[in-house]
Amino acid sequence: MTSLLIVIVLVLLGIAIWQLTKIFDLTQIGTAVNGDSEVANDRDNNVNGYLMFAFLGFIYVFTIYSLVKWGHLALGTPASEHGPQYDNLMTISLVLIFIVQTITQFLLHYFAFKYRGKKGQVAFYYADNDKLEFVWTIIPVIVLAGLILYGLYAWTNIMFVDENKEDTIVVELYAKQFSWEARYAGEDGVLGKANVRYIEGVNTLGVDMSDPNAQDDIQSTELHLPKGKQVIFKFRSQDVLHSAYMPHFRAQMNVVPGMVTQFAFTPTITTEEMRLDPKIMDKVANINKIRSEKSADLIADGGEALSPYTFDYLLLCNKICGASHYNMQMKIVVEDEADFNKWLGEKKTLGAAVKESQASEAPAEAAPAPATEEQEAATVIDSTVVDHK
Amino acid sequence: MSAVGHEIHGHDDHGHHKETFITKYIFSIDHKMIAKQYLLTGVVMGIIGIVMSLLFRMQIAWPEESFTIFKVLLGDKFAPGGVMRNDIYLALVTIHGTIMVFFVLTAGLSGTFSNLLIPLQIGARDMASGFMNMISYWLFFLSSVIMVISLFVEAGPASAGWTIYPPLSALPQAIGGSGAGMTLWLVSMAIFIASSLMGSLNYVVTVINLRTKGMSMTRLPLTIWAFFITAVIGIVSFPVLLSAALLLIFDRSFGTSFFLSDIFIAGDVLHYQGGSPVLFEHLFWFLGHPEVYIVLLPALGITSEIIATNSRKPIFGYRAMIASILAIAFLSTIVWGHHMFVSGMNPFLGSVFTFTTLLIAIPSAVKAFNYITTLWRGNLQMNPAMLFSIGLVSTFITGGLTGIILGDSTLDINVHDTYFVVAHFHLVMGISALYGMFAGIYHWFPKMFGTMMNKNLGYIHFWVTAVCAYGVFFPMHFIGMAGLPRRYYTNSAFPLFDDLADVNVIITMFAIIGAAFQLVFLWNFFYSIFKGKKAPQNPWRSNTLEWTTPVEHIHGNWPGEIPEVYRWPYDYSKPGHDEDFVPQTVPMKPNEEQLHH
Ligand code: HEM
Ligand SMILES: [Cu+2]
Ligand SMILES: [Cu+2]
């Protein structure tokens, strides 16, 4: 179907070009047939000068159209403590860009129109003006200095984390092709050591089970976060680079095999609250309209309908990591602290999970295992320490 | 007269002068022929790169739909039943990026115009080393062939993105393309770098040593300044990419651990210990960022020349333009970390790179303002080359401005690796440099082929391309700010992104129309080579030396002595002269005021 559409579009375009050249050629009648006729004459200057002006109009109209039609697509209310600051800086930068873009494009295209060549018009021999050069060096310097200062202030705020702050929890986010897992530090607040060389059976994150801090760690395939607490994420990957991207929280950090990276933020809006956010409600309604239209098509083709969409925070992978990179996601649930503690309390600790699975295995197999593990332990480096390279 | 004419021919005095087909068209050491070879190879690679972008754009707009064209072009293995495989999507994106950046806009652009214009505009009979120049082209040709061959590898070509970050690029277990496909990619790029270095050395040596009498550095056309500095940047940064590629080859084939550590994949722990992918990122971007300017500066140089000529006005702020080229060149080597704000490197480094990155906006802004002022009160001749040059300034501004967002470490957090980035770099680097290349082709076509291109087809080509380029890349800002990551095979895994689907369809429509109109260019290009109207000697009434050579190419460029230069190249519409251009070869009148000695 679409191929057909494209073919039709192409054919129409072909005809259009052919017609256009004919029109252009007609305007050339009477000019010389040698190579000079391929140099722009007054007529070309005039036509293209006007087109330059029209193109300015196109840029403006297209920009406004995009803003009206697609402006709402941009991410809405930020759900983290640093989010509003991020959005503020973004808004300032966008407004600034918008102003500069409007003015410079105007000057460029307007001059191209206004000074289009004419017989007898003499260009102004104007080669230098140090004062002007100075002015348009110094203006960007001042504006950029302001942006840099604000940017660096925000950056310091976001990236240099106070680890000893009260009301902090530590969560490990673990990436592998093509899924995420989370590990909570448990009652002691300390994550057990880990290295991929310990991966075995239910211990899919390679936690060092001989580490006392590891016993109460809790593993999960859904990321729950308590509202209002600073969450320090420690990221680990078992295979290739991934990137933990949590757009609603204005948060992203690459996940690097062989080292631990870190990012921290404080969630401020629970999932339930966010579902009632007016912008999100509009967005969800719009998406569901699109989905129900698609469902109608699907059913007509004998397929199944799409399930309706409800809003959830998401963790996406944002660094190319393999064939299924496009579908490496984890649901994030932000809830009140009480709900969070209840959810976490119902989870089995890692120590218990490992013991359980060992108990169900044949004891004969269990015997030689510790020996090799000990050998390895000597050479294995704990990879849960943040190490800035 | 004949003594000078023979300087360069000294070596073949003993033999016969007859050129065979092979020495003239294939293993030529004449810079003009080599330039044409670069151009043709670049055009062919460009066609491959653009077609690839159409294929993956179709997949994004109509995900997992079956297309006959996929079956035809990708075969049943890469597109079973006409549905593109998800790893092949990534392969196409990777090879598209690689081809466009390196093969089209580095070799195709810089290779063509540095070779053509350096000797002609500085008044030299050829490059310093014609032989090395020939080798440089043939290495480029070889690397192109290897890159194309890699498309036919059983498990698919390289698929780890044009940035080939390990471990993905190092482990065939991680993605099929990281097997033989990646090996060929690395071999091809290693050869490419060798070619590029030979070319660059030649350009630098030629510009420094072979300028004709009177051609001081401050009388060089800005094209030459741009090519010269570009070559220097290439010499400084390409070897670093070569070393990264070599170390990656070691990790892949000889078990070293430069970039790999603690990896568990496909059920096995690998032996690697102690390496860091972040190190690779540093090495890659130490070239990768300057590469942006390697692509862009020649385009800006070409634009400077064309805007001045067609405005019939001196380029405004000649010395400020040189200063900004130098500043950009220097700064471009200390901003690479802005690609790595969220790589896990020390956040303090992020602060430093934010600072240097926003600094580079200043010389860029100066350039844009100088172009605009050059147009002011000119007598603009709207030749196709001029349109593309004005178009370049327009996309350079639009794309450059969003750099203020991406260069700010804080703001980069949420738009890094989204379509916002795709929009930014395509406008500021891809489209701008492509426009520069088109401008150069339209402007110097008469010099290269002795015939004129059809201007009306040129106008159609420009206007449709200009509209479509905005149509493709402007909307990408919005889907990027919606949080849509790049390099996704389909967005249908996230209902969250369902409302972006129609934007993606619009983008793809613009891309298809824009690409279709490149056929107008191709037709014009090839038709004009053979059937174009014969070119006058100086069709654009330009001041620079290349237009003093005869239309017919001769070895050694000038039949007689090399002309001497008496003035800078931008004496357009100078009061006190009859014509609105005063070629560099015209001696100063008594008491004439002299700009730039
Ligand atoms: C001058 C021409 C162009 C240049 C220099 C260029 C360059 C690049 C580069 C470097 C990449 C990144 C590849 C990667 O992520 O590994 C890329 C990706 C892309 N190109 Fe182009 N490109 C050009 C033309 C086009 C055209 C005409 C289209 C048409 C739509 C296009 C669409 C895209 C898209 C959508 C991506 C992003 C794919 C993704 O990463 O998800 N490009 N291009
Ligand atoms: Cu991924
Ligand atoms: Cu960069």
UniProtKB/TrEMBL annotation, chain A:
Transmembrane segments: 47-68, 89-113, 133-155
Protein name, UniProt field: cytochrome-c oxidase
Coiled coil: none
The family this protein is said to belong to: Belongs to the cytochrome c oxidase subunit 2 family.
InterPro entries, A to Z: CcO_II, CcO_II-like_C, Cupredoxin, Cyt_c_oxidase_su2_TM_dom, Cyt_c_oxidase_su2_TM_sf
Any one GO CC term of the record: membrane
GO molecular function, one term: cytochrome-c oxidase activity
Record keywords: Electron transport, Membrane, Respiratory chain, Translocase, Transmembrane, Transmembrane helix, Transport
Domain Cytochrome oxidase subunit II transmembrane region profile positions: 67-162
Source organism of the structure: Flavobacterium beibuense F44-8
Span list, region Disordered: 354-389
Compartment(s) where it occurs, according to its Swiss-Prot or TrEMBL record: Membrane
Enzyme class: translocase
GO biological process: ATP synthesis coupled electron transport
Compositional bias of kind Low complexity: 356-372
Domain called Cytochrome oxidase subunit II copper A binding: residue spans: 166-346
UniProt lineage: Bacteria, Pseudomonadati, Bacteroidota, Flavobacteriia, Flavobacteriales
Enzyme Commission (EC) number: 7.1.1.9
Entry superkingdom: Bacteria
Membrane topology classification: Multi-pass membrane protein
Entry annotated with the keyword Electron transport: yes
Automatic annotation (TrEMBL), chain B:
Membrane-protein topology: Multi-pass membrane protein
Localization per Swiss-Prot or TrEMBL: Membrane
PROSITE patterns: COX1, COX1_CUB
Repeat listed as a keyword: no
rRNA processing is among the record's keywords: no
Keyword terms of this UniProt record: Electron transport, Heme, Iron, Membrane, Metal-binding, Respiratory chain, Transmembrane, Transmembrane helix, Transport
Gene3D superfamilies: Cytochrome c oxidase-like, subunit I domain
Cellular component, GO annotation: membrane
Cytochrome oxidase subunit I profile domain residues: 21-590
GO MF term set: cytochrome-c oxidase activity; heme binding
Bilayer-crossing regions: 38-56, 88-118, 139-165, 185-210, 222-250, 283-304, 316-336, 348-373, 385-407, 419-445, 457-483, 503-526
GO-annotated biological processes: aerobic respiration; electron transport coupled proton transport; respiratory electron transport chain
Family recorded in the similarity comment: Belongs to the heme-copper respiratory oxidase family.
Protein name, entry field: Cytochrome C oxidase
Organism: Flavobacterium beibuense F44-8
Lineage: Bacteria, Pseudomonadati, Bacteroidota, Flavobacteriia, Flavobacteriales
